[in-house]
## 1
Amino acid sequence: MRLLGLVVVALAVCIAIPAVAQDKPASNMEILRQKLQADKKLVVAANMDLTESEAKGFWPVYDAYQADLDGLNRRLGQLIKRYAEAYRTKTLTEETAKSLIDEAIAIERAEVGMRESYVPKLSAALPGTKVARYLQIENKIRALIKYELASEIPLVP
């Protein structure tokens, strides 16, 4: 589980980095993102106990899920970037705050909707207990990422 912790911290950093550092070459960030995705996949594989036939059905669904999750992570990164800029320049208006709140809630809704949409796909490849296990793993990783982000993002002044 130590690897899980490292992966989570690194994923949180990857989400937050666009908000604070724009001087890194995109190729370096993409290499880091790919490495973290591979490490996360190892954590999932180590905790899923898949049979060979389950693995054949599961991994394509996993890859699609991760691609969709990456889109949400990018939205979250953009949201953090917007907040960081307003915080840094002390230009957080009521209107901007409302816009940030609306986007944060929209991202959360989209994440829940995405999870719901993947349950039938996962269920086609795995028994219910393993679908639940996979969703638990994803939920734990997301909770840790959100905790790391929350600990680094300052409260609205």
## 2
Amino acid sequence: MNTYELTIVIPEDKDGKEVARITKVITDFAKKTDGEVNKQESWGAKHLAYPIKKLAIGQYEHFVITLEPAQQVVLEKMLHMDESLLRYMFVRV
């Protein structure tokens, strides 16, 4: 099992239900694949370094997750297909 840091950026105009849906997808995936969400933080709304899809502000969510390497690839594909995310970044700790 490897430990990963996952940071996602969600458009600021999305409501709390959308943020809760995305965080639930990530935590449910970790539990279902015998992984674990060690830490979850909401960093709030921040100005982006450059506009993404004509948006200048995004909501940041940060996770520390323990997963098998093969499951990390599956989760990354799921995040890539989710159109409600502006950006995401996986880093192996």
## 3
Amino acid sequence: MVLVSPGVWVVEDYDYPVYFSDGFYWYVDGGVWYRSRYWDHEFARYPREQVPGHLASLPHEQFRHYRGAPEAERVRPGRGEQPGANREARRERP
């Protein structure tokens, strides 16, 4: 995952944008939002009016198959782990 703005991470090079912010993973499909504690499963529909504004306003198409800049901060969270948890031990270097 790559940090794309303060507090917002995105799964790199994925078929659709999956974000991590505010303790959850999020994605939007056809205007319908979903969230989960995991980046790859157990997504449940979530009310659009309750989605954090900093996520709703992102240019989602820009993050489809997104590749962060070489110097961007990256983490590789384990299953169910949140980005930045144990960051020093897991930080990837470009």
## 4
Amino acid sequence: MPAKRTWTDAQDTRLRQMRAAGATWDVIAAVFWIAPATARDRGYRLGVPAPVPVLPSWQPPGDRPALAAGHPVTWGLLTAGTCLEGAPYG
């Protein structure tokens, strides 16, 4: 069984700063030479919040009319990479 890890205040501060900057648990674990699960566990115990993901803003389509069911563009997108790829709608 591995020895118990003793965390210092400086390490806790660094973990918080790295996570706030958006570092993943894998990156943090590599910096501290520990397993990602150990880094996640320490972050959880410290109450470190997960970074807020930056999502692209969604814009409504504007004046574009909706495409009909089975339109070749939408049907092709839905079936790409499946067993229905190339099959006609309906």
